[in-house]
Amino acid sequence: MKHIFLSPHLDDANLSAGEYILQLRKRREQTLVITLFTTFGKKKPLGPAKKYLNDSGFNDPLAFSKERVGEDKRAMQILDTQFVRLRFVDALYRTHSGKKRQKSFYIYPSFESLRSGKINPVELPLIKTLADTISKYIFKDDILYAPMGIGGHVDHFIANAVLTLFPNRHFYWIDQPYILRNLEEISSKYLHSFTVVSTERKIFALLQYISQIPLLYPEGIRLMEEQFFVDRG
Length: 233
Description:
This protein is of the alpha/beta class. The chain has a single domain (about 1-230), classed as LmbE-like (Rossmann fold), CATH 3.40.50. It has eight helices and nine strands. It has helices at about 10-25, 45-55, 60-80, 110-115, 125-135, 155-165, 200-205, 215; strands at about 1-5, 30-40, 80-90, 95, 105, 145, 170-175, 190-195, 225-230. The strands form two sheets. The chain has a seven-stranded mixed β-sheet, sandwiched between helices. The protein has a two-stranded antiparallel sheet with strand order 4-5. α3 (about 60-80) runs antiparallel to α7 (about 200-205). The relative contact order is 0.19.
C-alpha cells in the first residue's frame, strides 16, 4: 500500500501535506508525490502569465521551469518521498486553438478566471488524460490525497476531479496557504477526518521553494495544522 499525493504544482503537496508525509515516512510507510503541472510553455508569456513569471524572478519560462524542478527536487529529498513529475502545462500558460485552428488564446486569460474554481469546458478531456497517465502508478490498495480546492485555482480543482475517477480510498487536504484568505470556502460536502500538527521540520522543506515562498507568504511562513477531509457522499 502506498500513500499517493496528487499535487497540482511543484509545491502544493508540501505546502498542505508535507508534515503528514514526513510522519508517514518516519513510520516507514510508502509515499509518492505525483505532480501534474510542471511546465510553463515555451514562448514568452503575455499578460498575467508574464506578471507571475516576473514576480517569481524570471522572464524565460524554460528557465523558470528548470528552477522550479530543482527547488522541488530538494524539497522531496527532505521529505524522503518518492516523486513523479508529469510535464503538463500550468493553467496560466495553457492555450487553446479552437476547432478551426484559429490563432491560439489563453484558456485562463486573467487571475480572476484562473482562481474562479470553474474549469473551462475545453479542458474536460484533460481530466481523463491525467487519470489515464497516472493510473500506472496506482494500485487498488493505495490511498489517494488531493486538494479540496480552497482558493479556487482551476488546477487544484482538476486534481480534485482526477481523484474522483479512482475507486481508491481517498482524502482531500485543505489548501495552504490559501485557506488563510478563504476561511469560508470549506464546503459542507466534506467531513473532517484528521488533523496533523505541523513542526519546524516542515519549514525546512518549504524553504527550498525559493522562487515561491515570498509570493505565498509575503510576511513570512505561517506554520499551520494540516487538515484532511473525506467526501460526505
